[in-house]
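QA checklist item 7 of 12: single-chain prediction sanity check.
[x] sequence parsed
[x] length recorded as 440
[x] structure emitted
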Amino acid sequence: MLRNLILMRFILPFGDIVFKGNFIKSLRFWRKFKDFSQKDLEDYQKKALKKKLQFANENIIKYKDILLSDNDTIEEMLLKFPILTKTDLKVNPNILISNSKEKSTKISSSGSTGESTTVFMNIKDLTSLQALQFHLWELCGYKIGMPVLQTGISPKRSLLKKLKDIFFGTMYISAFSLTEKQLQTICKKLNKNKLYTIIGYPSSVNIIASYILENDLDLSIARFIGIGDAMLSKYKLNIKKALKCEIYEMYGTSEGFQIGFQYDLKYMYQYSPQVYLELLDDNDNEVKDGEIGNVVVTRLDNYNMPLIRYKIGDLAIKLPKEHYPKKRKYNFPLLEKVVGRNTDIVILPDNRKMVVHSFTGIFEYIVEIKQFKIIQKDKSGILIEYIPADNFENNILANIKRKLQKHIANEEFYIEFIEVTSIKSAVSGKTQLIKSYLTL
């Protein structure tokens, strides 16, 4: 493919020079692991984890008092490090940064659990992450330069992102409430080229799929790669029926973890070269394979702001090794199930749908609110439960309502707020951001 050749040989290497990145080098690095044996993967991960722990112990203020011994096993070394929480990232992130004078990029999570976080990455850590994201898409059949329809929460694209969209052949659409006109434009684009890869939130792509089915359109694409929220079974059925494509799922976080991907199995591969994964009970003890546990992750390829034993708020189950399929494409370890990442939909009076990121794209910038939850009982409006932060003022609510109404565009749609001291978790144990009593 000509676009792929031009990107790989000219544009991306030039971009690395201009922006002092390492995308091409990182991409080649990540590509090698797909052919590793199970033992080689385990050996690499242990080596990378030991290197990361020693670096953090020597260079990160938070970890300098930890006493590591040459006689410690990797597991013993790791257990000496405390669990890192979202609150830790908010309260004093500076004690987690190795070089505060180095130029870095601020990365904010979408806050799909109702609580957003911020981390910092230097150019090396950031381009390593970006290269890995592209590589995982490659494992699903995508090639750099293929046409892409991407859904996201950044309606205002920076110059750099706009250039990326142009060079990579990407049509970017906002995951905020999709209008009839936007859906028509999307379908016209897809109708012209059956080689599109759609990458985005399953909840927002399900809206596109529902529109296609409702209007009896005959469309197909190359593949759909779900990121950002849960691949609910109803979404998967709709998308497969509407777009006649293979469906893959990625599991990662905005803080820089590419935890896993689904390809040829009903299970999910853990991407062990980049993430060391622990599943712990509520007392921070490791659970047995096959049992549900809290997801705690350590990123192995970043050094500007090492995130060690970071508790992300999800629940998951590791597949016992005796249940591993004899035939599988890759030798990465397997997750039996990711639990608790669930997203509902808010339905507006004119049947437009707002997905979880329609709300997190606003609330992540409202530092005066610690956590929130959306409740919808009918199409006439929503109730927003919120936990105020210390610097909360009442005019914040009017600001949020104004921003939401800009997307809702219906003054009769009521938005009511209620202050609470805690947000009730879903049955899974994870905070459910949207609780809807309606059905699509």
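[x] summary fact logged: The CA atoms of residues 289 and 430 lie 20 Å apart.
[ ] second reviewer sign-off
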